[in-house]
Amino acid sequence: MAKSKIVKANEKITEKVVGTFEKIEGTVVGGYSKIEDAFVGHYLTKDGETVADAKKRLKKEQEKLETGTVCNDPCRKNFS
């Protein structure tokens, strides 16, 4: 069955829109990643720690905070 001209035109438009979105998405995510790496490298790394190691450490610390295994109140002990 032959496709109508409108269907073919819509498919071309769809391909263009999706392709453009993917390019924009890649640019935005790439830019964010560069900024994030620079911030972590400058402010959050400890002595001799790489950016990747710092991100892993921060992620583990965040997970502990979210699960409640760490208590930040100095008057209380950590109960887990």
Q: Can you summarize the main beta sheet?
A: none
- C-alpha Rg (nearest Å): 24 Å
The unreliable regions are: none
Continuous helix count: 2
Q: What is the global morphology?
A: elongated
Provide the structure class.
mainly alpha
- Mean pLDDT figure: 89
Percent of residues in helices: over 70%
Count of distinct strands: 0
Please provide the ordered H/E string of secondary-structure elements. HH
Our measurement of the CA-to-CA distance between the termini, rounded to an integer number of angstroms, reads 66 Å
Strand content: under 5%
Structure description:
It is a single chain. By secondary structure, this protein is mostly helical. The longest helix is centred in the first third of the chain and has 40 residues. It starts with a helix and ends in a 13-residue tail after the last helix. The model has no long low-confidence stretch (mean pLDDT 89).
Key structural traits:
elongated, mainly alpha, 80 residues
